[in-house]
Fold this protein.
Amino acid sequence: MSLQTNLKGRLRNTSLPKSHGLMPVFEAVVNSIHSIEEKTNSNNGMIVLQINRSTQNDLELGDKSVPPIVGFTITDNGLGFDEANFKSFETLDSEHKIDKGCRGVGRLMWLKAFELAEIESHFLDDNNVLKKRVFRFNDKKGVHSEKIIEATDKQSGTLIKLISFDETFRKHVPAKGSSIANQLLEHVLWYFVRQGSAPKIMVKDAGEVFDLEHLFEEHMHASAFPETINIRDYSFDLIHIKFRASVNKKHQLALCAANRLVKEESIQGKLLGLYGKISDASGEFTYTCYVSSDYLNKHVRSERTSFDITENVEDMLNEVSFKDIRNAVLERTKAYLHDVLAENVSAGRKRVDDFINNHAPRYRPIANYVAEELLIVDPEKSDKELEMHLHAQWYEVERQLVSEGHDIMQPQNEEHIEEYNKRLSEYLRKAEDIKKSDLANYVSHRKVIIDLLQKSIEKLDDGKYAREDMIHELIMPMRKDSNEVLQDSCNLWLIDERLAFHNYLASDKTLNSMPITGNDSNKEPDLLSLRVFDNPLLVNDDTSFPLASITVVEIKRPMRNDMREGEDKDPIDQALGYVERIRDGQAKTKSGLLIPRNHDIPAYCYIVCDLTPTMIKRCKNFSLTMTADGMGYFGYNPNYKAYIEVISFNQLVKAAKERNRAFFDKLGLPSA
């Protein structure tokens, strides 16, 4: 078929992903390898890939930038474009060199990424005379300007110049010559690890020269290990390679066809122990398994960027799928890296055990219900990543429990009573462990809150102390009421365990904005809690209830020392003022029931602040008594019928730790 006639149509139907802009260049290098191998004496084979960059001054280039790549020149000392090779070049889908895996379409990819190819080639003609053939190749004229002239060199070889690199491909290509050299090495690595040797291949970029043989030696961690396996009825050749960890690679499966790298797939984490960092006695390395087979050769697409192979085969046609290949190779990888993986598995399980024991004991009760492989992780996982992983397992166990609970309520047909009792017993045991996990989670939450409070009251780097709203957020989210705030986000137990349960609570809202009262005052208590206690001796209906007790909490900034008489500056006076306004107002419960006016409603006022000199003076003015440890004041004010307690921040933390120490110790959490 005529190349000129069908070229544009074939180019339109030839696929080259934008991320594969170097593929045409690398294919030209592979063609040079084949050309050298065809030569009778190929021991001194040499290939040079020259990176051509723009010579124009680019005002937008930074000091560290390099000029853009405009093309490449590939030079070899192979057989050259003799009559057979030139005829093959002119013929689409040529079967010439098909035994080397050539599809006869590689040159089409040149024109996908480049505007023009110029070729100069020395070859021996039929009379064994060295000649020079020159021609050009583009999408408009195909092969043109071809002529044979007298030789200008002393040996056969070819120079291919790929001109005008398409911008849409160029922007996806690495800018540095070293990166291009490493990618080329990956593409032709098979020629370095096979039996025999590869020709000398150099990459030149301005003043830099990269020898692929030296790169190969630098990157190799250990000798390649080849083996052959069978998948269904097909033979597959594997080459296990360990690269030095300095190489920017992940553990991967590399599928090859036609002696070229076609598809890479990360296998990191797909085997227990195969994580980002693995090492043996020689140090850290990354692992790659190169896979080649006649089956892959037959199913590679013409552009050699993918395969016509399905991910999974459900029928019985004896076809091999990617899943078949992956599973078979991973089994061999597991055997090849057995000692390394076993060590990583042990370290991964220890990482989980240590994290649960020292940081997250809430997950200990559900560990027995999680598959062993899910409790083995990358030892390098951060605490956050590990927490997210374990939480996902906890959620799955709880989801299974809910499902099993529904099944338990419906005994199976013809199920014997012994079988049902066994199933019920297993369910109840799991449910009990889940509840233990819930309790452990709550206790761990308290430990975190206490630690955060401890840090919040310490002096900041700038010598100042935290604002009261920061501490306020730990106790109760700002400008929220209990109808808006989840129970777990409220930490009033820091002040008084009884405040963890309430009928209504509001935070930093004016009294008239609370549904519990119609008071017009804009005075804002930090916290206001109204508890309605049921009378254990009476049966109450919805329209009757006993009187309520009021609790007011006031929080001040650490080390505040500007307290003085007056409700605006005296926190004790502020708290008692809040109590009076509640007692005088037409307060209602959240359900709209009136609380009768009563000035005898018991009140509890908690002031959380540091005992600075001015605060101590205010405590003495209200005749409060210092606590035995000297970290607070307390007393009853008969005029306001209110119990008052002034708690220093240090006492708040100390008391919270003491109340919870037994729980922390039980879970193995540090309580000091």
